[in-house]
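Q: What would this chain look like folded?
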Amino acid sequence: MTFVHPKILRTPTFLALALSFYSIAFVYAENADQDKPIILEAEKVSVNDVQQVYELNGDVLLTKGSILVTGEKGNIKVDPEGYEYVDVQGTPELVASFRQRREGPADEFMQGRGSVVTYNAKTELLTLTGEASLKRLLNMQMIDQLRGWKIEYDDIKQTYRVFPPSNAKPEDLPLARAILSPRRKATLEK
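A: My prediction, written as structure tokens:
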């Protein structure tokens, strides 16, 4: 058994490195989501059809297949190829959130929260910023959970990355935290 000092285990570099080697096998985003239309709901929606830019204000709800994004205000830009770039902000009282059904087991979801949620449909990169958390749920039970200032989830590469604030000091550790269920146990419970 190898012992690693607890302070080293809590460093953002160690956690990012450990998480970059960790991936969830055989779990991908719902394939059908790419081809679904975006349904927008908000108190106010402004549309610039020429530039393909949509501005949303007040009780934002964005739905695209199994993807749900909520917040207080948001922007969506559609590129010439038809890929959406979503940026949704929360408020101090109500954070922005993201939820997506996973391909595979019927009741598996990725669910995240933060001050800001951004999603790039082309690269399938989800970024949660500001006291962010990301969970993988199976049958509404948490399988994995990440917390940090900023979390990136790359659905294509199946990797997580957790970042501390740029002005973080070593004495502020731990700035990132992960709870990862044993793969064997999670597989047996499916």
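Residues 6-189 form a domain with the lipopolysaccharide transport protein A fold fold (CATH 2.60.450.10).
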